[in-house]
Design goal:
By secondary structure, the protein is α/β, with parallel strands linked by helices. The chain has a single domain, classed as 3-Layer(aba) Sandwich (Dna Topoisomerase Vi A Subunit, Chain: A, domain 2), CATH 3.40.1360. The protein has six helices and four strands. The chain has a four-stranded parallel beta sheet with strand order 2-1-3-4. Helix 4 links the parallel strand 3 and strand 4. Helix 1 runs antiparallel to helix 5 and helix 1 crosses helix 6. It starts with a helix and ends with a helix.
């Protein structure tokens, strides 16, 4: 019974996180990360599109940086934060929500979340 209640709380939290991400602009490292989030109903933008200046975050005021929990992800997040703060005024930058989602699903990279997320959503 306690396990079921814990799973339900985790499911509710995940659904809330995915909803928040869907209402913002999510930037990911690569196409596999993008595909994983799309399977969960969240559109995202690949890092290189922003880095090269080919894409501007849309009208949504919160930009979520969904980077992998490794050195490369941290470096990209730092570069993006600097770029967003200097070139795109008025946006809120959030790295904590995507990180908490990764940790919740025991994933080190965004591309690893799809299976565990679907399982959690379907189990309950």
């Amino acid at each position: 019974m306690q396990k079921r209640a814990k799973e339900e709380r985790a499911r509710e939290r995940l659904v809330k996180i995915l909803g928040s991400l869907a209402n913002g602009t999510v930037i990911v490292e690569g196409k596999h990360d993008k595909k994983a989030l799309e399977e969960l109903g969240v559109d995202s933008v690949v890092y290189t599109s922003i880095e090269k200046g080919n894409l501007v975050p849309d009208y949504k005021k919160t930009v979520y940086l969904a980077m992998d929990l490794d050195k490369g992800g941290e470096e990209k997040a730092t570069k993006l934060i600097s770029k967003l703060l200097s070139e795109y005024k008025g946006y809120t930058i959030n790295v904590d929500l995507p990180r908490s989602m990764l940790k919740m699903l025991n994933a080190r990279s965004v591309e690893q979340i799809c299976g565990p997320a679907k399982e959690l959503i379907e189990v309950v």
